[in-house]
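no rush on this but wanted to send it before i forget. what follows is a protein written twice so to speak, once as letters and once as structure tokens for the fold. mainly i need to know what kind of three dimensional shape the backbone takes. thanks a lot i owe you, the record is right below.
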Amino acid sequence: MKNTFFTPRNLFVFIALIFAASTRLFPHPDNFTAIGAMGLFAGAIMNNRTLSLVLAMAVMFVTDSIIGFYDGFWVVYIAFALSIVLGWIISKKQNMLSITTASIASAILFYVISNFGVWAGGGMYPMTGAGLGVCYIKALPFFYNGLLSQVLYGGLLFGIFHAVKNWKPSLVKA
């Protein structure tokens, strides 16, 4: 039976996930971490979908264990899982357009889902359509940071991976 866990590619992705997750542990502007890019990257690069989901979620869980869990963390995990699924969608056709489009879609999904969770959690905004609208409007600065970090960190993760793949294919072979 072929070992699909300990491949050079999976080791490379695991190291990249550790780097990406570490961005949560150091001071950073609100929502400016590599987490969304990490999910998209794991989903797109790892050949085993289950492993990409489990490994990326585990890294997220470990960093949450360090920094502390927060109200509505499960909503963030749903949005994060969808970033991984977007990675699965682009896994067979990775180019600048597909990666950028998936990065933007991931940031939008995170914004929509996480802020719906804030609103639905009650207490901060009235449970009305207007309250939901106010929640989304007040969250726009967080969206901009999330979008920027998604595109920048995604470009970094995918860029390094594809540069290494072209430079030394054995380091990232499946």
About this structure: The chain has a mean pLDDT of 91. The chain has one domain: 8-169. Residues 36 and 150 are 6 Å apart (CA to CA). Residues 8-169 form a domain with the Arp2/3 complex 21 kDa subunit ARPC3 fold (CATH 1.10.1760).
